[in-house]
């Protein structure tokens, strides 16, 4: 697997991951960043979907970047697999964009929608957003998990919808700040220029630190053990030398193997 650490940070783009549950506004956040930063920086985007290129098509149709600067990765598996377990597809897509449009300042890598524990491998990205939205409920930030607790920045998105879904934004942000122990929390509404400016400033600040060599990619930690049930088949993921259990056509078997995370 390609190793991003072999590429000097001074000669490649800052790579920022955007993760979060389905429907929280990851693609909209990327579109917003492209609009806000596109005249100042050279940008590119990699999207992830299981079987489609829906997010890439959305961004291309929005006209936020040259369509050739937006590449889609079809993972064919659980969304977290391609951003943490085996990042090869994504890393190759990122490196292709950096080569084709050199010099690129920032590559934004969007995860497919996953649960509250999804995180990017530091082998793929240098920094990561985790995106929640108020429509998901005011208590969601209190539920914790690696993404909420330890991503470089947590975006509380769609704050303008709070009156319509009965959410106290100030309390939700306070809960997020408590869960993150002082790490960055960014309330965001695309209708609020000040909140947009804060997200833009965070990206520019991170880019400055990256270029100076001060920024070091942090690993938010492995995903929590979780269970997928698909049709009549399920499988369980845990971290570091775990046992996988599969239930297939009425037969149960287990086998042990380790994933590199």
Automatic annotation (TrEMBL):
Similarity comment: family membership: Belongs to the SIMIBI class G3E GTPase family. UreG subfamily.
HAMAP family listed in its UniProt record: UreG
Domain CobW/HypB/UreG nucleotide-binding: 16-186
GO cellular component: cytoplasm
Pfam families assigned: cobW (PF02492)
Its job: Facilitates the functional incorporation of the urease nickel metallocenter. This process requires GTP hydrolysis, probably effectuated by UreG.
SUPFAM superfamilies, per the entry: P-loop containing nucleoside triphosphate hydrolases (SSF52540)
GO biological process, one term: urea catabolic process
Name under which the protein is recorded: Urease accessory protein UreG
Ranges of biased composition (kind: Basic and acidic residues): 227-237
Keywords: Chaperone, Cytoplasm, GTP-binding, Nickel insertion, Nucleotide-binding
Chain residue ranges for the region called Disordered: 214-237
InterPro entries: CobW/HypB/UreG_nucleotide-bd, P-loop_NTPase, UreG
Localization (cell): Cytoplasm
One GO MF term: GTPase activity
